[in-house]
Amino acid sequence: MLKRIHKILLQKKTDSRVTIQGWIRTRRDTGSFSFLEVNDGSCLANLQVIADKKLANYEQEIIKLSAGCSVVVTGDLKHSPAKGQDVELHAESVQVLGWAEPETYPLQKKRHSLEFLRTISHLRPRTNALGAVTRVRSRLSFAVSSFFQERDFVQVHTPIITTSDCEGAGEMFQVSATGEKNKNSEQFFGSQAGLTVSGQLQAEVYALALGQVYTFGPTFRAENSNTSRHLAEFWMIEPEMAFCDLACNMELATELLKFVLQDVLENCSEDLALFDKFIEKGLLKKLQNVVEKDFVHITYSAAVEELSNVVDTFEYPVKWGIDLQSEHERYLTEEVYKCPVIVTDYPASIKPFYMRLSDDGTTVAAMDILVPGIGELVGGSQREERLDVLMQRMVAAGIDTKEYDWYLDLRRYGTVPHAGFGLGFERLVQFATGMSNIREVIPFPRTPGFAPC
Ligand code: 4AD
Ligand code: MG
């Protein structure tokens, strides 16, 4: 509603009668009236309501209003003569729907730390910062869908309960059932099942039937990583394309990132300006740069060479064959190149079985996109489409090929080169908002030791 009012204002159509519904942020009284700042969550800006002393419930109710109370206000929208707002609502009636006791309501006018707000995840969306994050997250989600739909990708809902560990890292949550008869998933499903770590393998099934597909859903990892970039439950966008190699995969990922960031720059300017001012100075410029400039492409071997010239900076020493740590990734993107970096051709020994083995026999056609402030934002690869090579890689990784017979069938019947990637949605929201902790960009974060509601 307030968003609509601001649109009316842009068209200079004020002096119109409106009804708004929202929550009080602040109240200030003068001798003959009260100023009420009301917000309905549709946008960052509050609407200033002027409630005259002559209103019937002024003494009984209006001067008792405090932060968090819910109200319905009807009145005339007028251009405001005061500084700080363009428009104000002259109330004809102020109806109180719900009170919020000021002695106990935790969101008082002062600024609260993001850490404190995490302890009240049921109330934090009522703050400016978390409201803005939620709107940007929603817009990013819409932009992701628009991007794929405009390019004729088909959305596939891959399963949340699965019997395959896509990443082969053994970080799955086991599913079990309550009740006497179904104590474990083996009894329920006939085999051990868990929550998905990635929809990729099932997306591959659909890509090899429909060409270009994507999944966008929740994924779960039981890794004990208590960092500012890891969640136990997060959302991932995973496109998968038949007849596509690593180069085409990188191109799609680059276009996707540029498209969605451009979209929020255009459609969430008010919220992004808040983050630019209070959360990450220079955020708008950073996002603009990503949209406009080329990403750097380097191979893993070149990255390792670059990093091994750096003395005394890293906790983990760098040598060919290691998995790059967050400190290495961030050094490349923040210190060396100062822009998004796509690292390709990782050693086969540190990557999952499904990545395509290159002709050198030691690297795979993998790519990670690293961005400043985050490190890895995207992880993807061309997939191994050759049955014999795939089976060898699976056996070497200790995987029972019988359990993946359905996956191998994709190589037995009409196999084609194909590729895809996973974009961590919360890391994308982090990058777009400048929030340094991933717990701020998902409504209800789940991390080791933390899942309050
Ligand atoms: O690199 P990952 O593990 O790749 C896959 O899962 C592939 N199956 C994707 C594919 O090719 N279809 O994860 C992909 C991305 C990471 O780059 C990161 O952005 C995000 O998912 N991610 C996490 N985000 C939050 N919390 C975690 N614990 C995450 N683990 C990965
Ligand atoms: Mg990865």
Care to describe what's here?
With 453 residues, the protein is of the alpha+beta class. It folds into 2 domains: 2-105, Nucleic acid-binding proteins (OB fold (Dihydrolipoamide Acetyltransferase, E2P)), CATH 2.40.50.140; 124-440, Bira Bifunctional Protein, Domain 2 (BirA Bifunctional Protein, domain 2), CATH 3.30.930. The chain has helices at residues 2-10, 114-118, 128-150, 185-189, 200-210, 246-267, 269-278, 283-292, 300-308, 326-336, 387-396, 405-412, 425-433; strands spanning 16-29, 33-39, 47-52, 70-79, 87-98, 154-155, 161-162, 194-195, 212-220, 233-242, 296-299, 341-347, 363-371, 375-382, 418-424. The strands form 3 sheets. The chain has an 8-stranded mixed sheet. Strands 1-2-3-5-4 form a 5-stranded mixed beta barrel. Strands 7-8 form a two-stranded antiparallel ribbon. The radius of gyration is 26 Å and the shape is elongated. The model has no long low-confidence stretch (mean pLDDT 94). The protein binds 4-amino-1,4-dioxobutan-2-aminium adenosine-5'-monophosphate and magnesium ion. Residues 368, 376, 379 line the site of magnesium ion.
Give the beta-strand count: 15
**Within the largest sheet, what's the order of strands?**
6-9-10-15-14-13-12-11
Second-tier CATH architecture of the largest domain: 2-Layer Sandwich
Radius of gyration: 26 Å
- The unreliable regions are none
Mean model confidence by pLDDT = 94
List the ions, cofactors and other small molecules found in this model.
4-amino-1,4-dioxobutan-2-aminium adenosine-5'-monophosphate, magnesium ion
Proportion of β residues?
A: 15-25%
Q: Tell me about the biggest sheet?
A: 8 strands, mixed
Shape verdict: elongated
SSE order, as H and E? HEEEEEHHEEHEHEEHHHEHHEEEHHEH
| Helix percentage | 25-40%
Q: Termini, distance in Å?
A: 29 Å
CATH superfamily of the largest domain, by name, is: Bira Bifunctional Protein, Domain 2
Structural class: alpha+beta
Say what the CATH topology of the largest domain is. Answer: BirA Bifunctional Protein, domain 2
Q: CATH top level of the largest domain?
A: Alpha Beta
Number of helical regions? 13
Number of domain modules: 2
